[in-house]
Design goal:
The structure is a single chain. The chain is α/β, with parallel strands linked by helices and 370 residues long. It has a single domain, classed as TIM Barrel, CATH 3.20.20. The chain is 48% helix and 13% strand. Strands 1-2-3-4-5-6-7-8 form an 8-stranded parallel beta sheet. α1 packs across α15. The longest helix is centred in the last third of the chain and has 23 residues. The two termini are 26 Å apart. The relative contact order is 0.14.
């Protein structure tokens, strides 16, 4: 349905979606700074930015002119420049959680590569401790639960991936819930780093892999069959291999879909043409995510709202997508079930409110299953 099919204006829709109980599974810490914080920390370092106000800086940081994933990733040099001290990292992590909570996000997994925060002498354990302190403070103050996914980068030579996997395992009981492989996919196949995934899995740590964003379905196949991934980061090009697509759907491997980011990196032409609608129709375990709140210029509520206005998703579909993220989180089972029960309770109330503004639809009037 389009906005013309909904009995509300855009402002009312935005507030309705903000109140939707949400979880986010694919969000980069170093891509989600507040523009005001980026400006303040840059000024303290004597770094000149091409914008005079936070709003202007946010506009400049939004990557709308990239021709591919690699050009999109280049903007991270700006944020990483102010994430090199304990104080900077703790502040960024704290605000990361608070901002998520203000957007109605109840659980969030912050992913980043600690090796990128050691340029001025910090050890990776100091980086981890600072980030975890910031996330913990944000969690205590907001109630939003935050955990960490440690990323290795595809383009970094061995043994970088193993070092990051070892770090993730070492912090498994201190807030880390998974190990990931990120960065430019094209020319950097996941199998080169497969031993790091073997190590993480053998230590009983969950794994996820960026795949099917900067490269084709072969990238996803490597993530699934060689790295034995528990979730797929993006997975946008899964539709290019029908048998693999069926395998992922049948085995209930969750997709961490980031639609706006995919449009920016030219993996999808427009939001309306994004294959996530196809994956939802096929019954895949689809979760909605921002990827990078600053670079993509979106909140998680924005992404859900676009699913309504651009993909014509009804209230029942929106509620199901929200619940998928709680189900697919890397939290321990008991914690996941607790958050899920709370989400189901509040989703039933949300559906009652939504039914008064969404045009009647067979799924829009249904409650959310327990």
């Amino acid at each position: 349905m389009s906005l013309s099919d909904i009995n509300i204006d855009d402002t009312t829709l935005a507030e309705l979606i903000r109140r939707l109980p949400k979880a986010e599974l694919h969000c980069h810490l170093d891509g989600s700074l507040r523009s005001s914080t980026l400006m303040e920390l840059s000024a303290a370092r004597g770094i000149t930015l091409p914008a005079a106000t936070p709003d202007a800086l946010a506009s400049w940081m939004r990557v709308d002119d990239a021709r591919n994933l690699e050009e999109y990733l280049a903007r991270f040099d700006v944020t990483l420049a102010v994430m090199q001290t304990v104080a900077e990292l703790e502040r960024v992590a704290y605000e990361f959680v608070v901002d998520a909570a203000l957007d109605g996000v109840r659980y969030i997994e912050a992913r980043f590569c600690p090796a990128l925060n050691t340029r001025e002498g910090l050890r990776v354990d100091e980086v981890m401790d600072a980030v975890l302190r910031g996330l913990s403070r944000g969690e205590r103050e907001s109630g939003t639960v935050a955990r960490v996914i440690v990323c290795a980068l595809r383009s970094f030579p061995w043994p970088h991936a193993m070092e990051m996997a070892e770090l993730a395992v070492a912090y498994r009981d201190r807030g880390v819930v998974a190990f990931d492989l990120a960065g430019g996919e094209l020319g950097n196949p996941a199998h080169v780093h497969a031993q790091a995934f073997d190590f993480a899995r053998n230590a009983n740590l969950a794994v996820t892999v960026h795949a099917g964003e900067g490269d084709g379905a072969t990238s996803i196949a490597e993530a699934v069959h060689r790295c034995a991934t528990d979730r797929i980061g993006h997975g946008t090009r899964l539709q290019e291999d029908a048998t693999l697509e069926s395998y992922v759907v049948d085995r209930r491997i969750p997709l961490e879909v980031c639609p706006t980011s995919n449009v920016q990196t030219r993996v999808a032409h427009t939001f309306a043409e994004h294959p996530l609608a196809r994956y939802v129709a096929l019954g895949a375990v689809v979760t909605i995510n921002t990827d990078n709140r600053l670079m993509s210029g979106v909140s998680l509520s924005d992404e859900f709202r676009h699913c309504v206005t651009q993909l014509r998703f009804d209230a029942g579909t929106i509620a199901s997508l929200a619940l998928n993220a709680f189900d697919a989180s890397f939290l321990p089972w008991a914690d996941r079930q607790r958050l899920r029960r709370d989400a189901v309770r509040d989703l039933d109330l949300w559906m009652q409110n939504a039914s008064s503004v969404f045009v009647a639809h067979p799924t829009a009037s249904q409650g959310v299953g327990a």
